[in-house]
Amino acid sequence: MLQDQIFKANDIRGVTSGDTPEWDTAGATALGVAYARLMKGAGGEPVEFVVGRDMRTSGPEFSKAFIAGARSEGARVIGAGLTSTDELWFVSGHLDLPGITFTASHNPARYNGVKFCLAGARPVTPEFLLRLKHDAQELDAQELDLAAIATAAETSGSYREQDFLAEYAAHLHALVPLDGIRRLKVVVDAGNGMAGHTAPSVLGPLNLDVDVLYGELDGSFPNHQPNPLIPENLVDAQHRVVETGADLALVFDGDADRCFAIDETGAVVDPSAITAMIAEQELAREPGATIVINTITSASVPEIVAENGGTTVTSKVGHTYVKALMAEKDAIFGGEHSAHYYFRDFYFADTGMLAGLHVLSLLGHSDQPLSQLVGKYARRVASGEINSDVEDQQASMDVVAKAFDGRGRQDRIDGLTVHGDGWRVNLRPSNTEPLLRLNVEAADRATMESLRDEVLGLVRN
Description:
The chain is α/β, with parallel strands linked by helices. Helix content is about 35%, strand content about 20%. It has four domains: about 5-165, Alpha-D-Glucose-1,6-Bisphosphate, Chain A, domain 3 (3-Layer(aba) Sandwich), CATH 3.40.120; about 165-260, Alpha-D-Glucose-1,6-Bisphosphate, Chain A, domain 3; about 270-375, Alpha-D-Glucose-1,6-Bisphosphate, Chain A, domain 3 (3-Layer(aba) Sandwich), CATH 3.40.120; about 380-460, TATA-Binding Protein (2-Layer Sandwich), CATH 3.30.310. The strands form four sheets. Strands 1, 2, 3, 4, 5, 6 and 7 form a seven-stranded mixed sheet that branches. Strands 17, 18, 19, 20, 21 and 22 form a six-stranded antiparallel sheet that branches. It has a five-stranded mixed sheet with strand order 13-12-14-15-16, sandwiched between helices. Helix 1 packs parallel to helix 2, helix 1 (about 25-40) crosses helix 4 and helix 9 (about 270-285) packs across helix 12 (about 350-365). The model has no long low-confidence stretch (mean pLDDT about 95). It comes from Raineyella fluvialis. GO terms for molecular function: intramolecular phosphotransferase activity; metal ion binding. This is Phosphomannomutase/phosphoglucomutase. Belongs to the phosphohexose mutase family.
């Protein structure tokens, strides 16, 4: 079973359990067969690739089914075992092989999915995902002989396992100036996700007092959902910072490719401020470099990049789009408002852990608390991302566009963006869920709230 709705703009993601599953292990087998056929070389040479998975309970059986399907076509598979998504990107770049990882990122426990990359952690294209969808669904409709595929897999292709966690941690350490930082107390909220696996190896050797919340890997997410974009999922880390007098907290999503920072007062640091802060550091290292942002990154970021002699280019929201533009422009760094951060020296891929290390480096080399350190980078008041469930996303955006006609410059780079004098409204469809996402920012809170309420009134009417 491979229902249409599991195929998203950037990856595969769908429900695997309960009364209404959207894909199953038979579908995963079909995906493995289709993937191996699609990735064969021009002369029919079988693909070699690396596969990882997060801690979701369905991960072992779904990844095993995919591997069997791929091996039945002669694929040579390297099993990396439990990996954060950014660790999988590292392995792909390190080995210069295509990679996949079974993860549903920040989605609830009943979901699982697949993220893909080409050799060198390069992003796959939308055309690749469309072809994979077509071929896999066609195979799935034929009701594959799963027993025969499993038997063929035992004698076709190859499979070996290798742990890359130590190499991943060493690579991250080499990319950030961490020597000589003052001792910091940092709360790490792993949310029972993959940061519980990677953080000890990455943060343990550093001059840090690390206090880990929910570090046990548990795909049922017993403490809170693994989505730091939702404020309620940050509350535990906020309380822990204040209660223990920590310098900051780092909060990761389920597959640990995103990282949110909380300052010493318990306030959430705007990801756009983190983007500006890291961009400034990277531009000091390489003057004149290019920084990639997306359509909902704060307007403060291009201002700060320009002040530091850099160039900004804008991407659509989504890791495949940002990665492709990063590579095209040879950009040194990129940041999204969703707390995805991309680094040229990390194969142009996104990594929450490396972003966290940059924050620790900047704070550890400063005598200021984090709240003061980031103050100069937060020049706008933001609404945060507000989701609305609407029947016709395009029609809703058109209603808003008409209401704002003549009140600013509009573009449709990614959904609808209206640029006003000191304010901006962005309304765009989600890449992964049937939602319309609103982001508003302005120079003052009253203007932001007025614009936010106006747009929500139009969208939810």
